[in-house]
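ESCALATION

Customer reports they have been waiting on this structure for their group meeting. Please prioritize. Original submission:
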Amino acid sequence: MHKLNFVYYQEDEFYIGWLDEFPDYRTQGETIEELKENLKDIYEELTGGFIPNVRRVGELVLE
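Update from on-call: job pushed to the front of the queue and completed.
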């Protein structure tokens, strides 16, 4: 099982969301469940090489 964090908000009758790792790629759904399914689909597209030049968020540790 792979877990991904996502951010979402409700705008009118839609839930808008994106994956933490890919904040430039947003999707929507009429319900939270539909939004989650759409987020799974976009994750597959982003990590499967279907979308070129994918921008990601990374973490840099400074000491």
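Sent to customer with the following note: The chain has a mean pLDDT of 95.
Escalation resolved.
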